[in-house]
Amino acid sequence: MPQVRFSIVVICYNQREFIRAAVESALAQNRNLREIIVVEDGSTDGSREILEEYAGAIQLLRPPKNCGAIAARNQGAAQARGQYLVFLDGDDLLMPWALDAYERIIVERQPKILLARMQRFSGAVPPVETPSAIEFVDYEYLLAKDRQIGLFASGFVVERQAFEDVGGWTPGIFHMDLQDIYSKLGYNGKMALITSPATAYYRVHASNSIHNYAPFIQMQYRLMAKERRGEYPGGKRRYERRAWLGGQVMFCMKRAVHGRFYKDMVRLVATGGPMILALLVRKLEIKIKGHRPVETLAFPFQPSSPARQEQEVCNH
User: Fold this and answer.
1) Do 252 and 220 meet the contact criterion of CB atoms below 8 Å apart?
2) Which of 14, 22, 87, 172 is least crowded, fewest Cβ atoms below 10 Å from its Cβ?
């Protein structure tokens, strides 16, 4: 059986209100590029009945009991046939052009990892217009990234072999799961950062995990401990890793202030001091040297003459 380009792995736990929209957004993608795997993680709210309506259009996995988002993502990835994994949380949506945009960059640059911007919304899904171009930044590896972007599972695309090489999502690490897997993939190969357009919607609602401050802080301690034990790849590139993790320490410090976890605030400063210092030095370097340039690709792709094709990739 020919390999498909993308496996969209959707996870769902008690998201009856949102899961139909998530699956429909996956089905709206270019059918020549994708397969859809949905892990219904032991829901008790009727989500399973909704998903069973899509029999034949999706591959539905139904663990006998709830095992959590990390295990659900890994289980879906284990069944995937695609060259790349696209993760989609059950309360988010892919924009109609998401896979076509990823494909455009993969054909052009062959990255192992793509990070994409997401558009936040609440209530009704806002209308969007099909973009005429893709703006992106090309990096030799993920930790060379010099631009900030929100970290969301639904904006994360990774070559399946690279994902398997680092052991997938780390069991037991949630809330800082993206920061952890990015650290594991830090030197795994080329990465493309899509700065425009957004490729997915992030739905803001009362049950978003981002509202729960304490787990982020506790998981950050685990990430710092992993770095001190030398569990992340990169060997002697400690400065880059620490600068990356310093950004996560700063994020959790803000969480601590908002949640009034003042003891944790002090502890984060004490244990993460070297990482914060590395981050500040890194920011100064970027300010002096400037950011990696943004490049533009015409979208949707239209075959053209060789002369015109030479002009399609240009510095922005």
Assistant:
1) yes
2) 172
Whose tokens are 């510095």? That residue is: 315
Q: Hey, which residues does 137 pair with through a beta bridge?
A: 193
Long-range contacts formed by 31-34: CB under 8 A, 24+ apart: 33/4, 33/5, 33/6, 33/99, 33/100, 33/103, 34/4, 34/5, 34/6, 34/7, 34/8, 34/82, 34/86, 34/99
**Rounded to whole angstroms, how far apart are CA atoms 260 and 213?**
10
For residues 294 and 9, what is the distance between their CA atoms, to the nearest angstrom?
A: 29
Residues 182, 76, 216: CA angle, nearest 5 degrees: 40
Q: Which two tokens stand for residue 172?
A: 């037991």
Using an 8 Å Cβ cutoff, are 217 and 168 in contact?
Answer: no
C-beta of residue 232 within 8 angstroms of C-beta of residue 241:
yes
The confidence band for 292, taking pLDDT boundaries of 50, 70 and 90, is very high
| Helix locations, the chain, DSSP H | 16-27, 47-52, 69-78, 98-109, 160-165, 177-184, 213-228, 238-258, 262-289, 306-312
Q: At 315, which amino acid appears?
A: N
State yes or no: pLDDT of 85 exceeds 50: yes
Q: Do 249 and 268 touch, CB atoms closer than 8 A?
A: yes
Question: Helices 238-258 and 177-184 sit at what angle, rounded to 10 degrees?
Answer: 180
Residue 313 clears pLDDT 80, i.e. is over it: no
**240 touches 233 (CB < 8 A):** no
Q: How far apart are CA 183 and CA 142, in angstroms?
A: 8
Sign of the Cα torsion 118, 131, 300, 24 reads positive
Q: For residue 22, which of 203, 210, 207 has the smallest C-alpha distance?
A: 203
Burial of 202 (0-12, 13-18, 19+ CB in 10 A): buried
Q: pLDDT tens across 145-180, in order?
A: 999 888 899 999 999 999 999 999 999 999 999 999
Q: 177-207 pLDDT, tens per residue?
A: 999 999 999 999 999 999 999 999 999 998 8
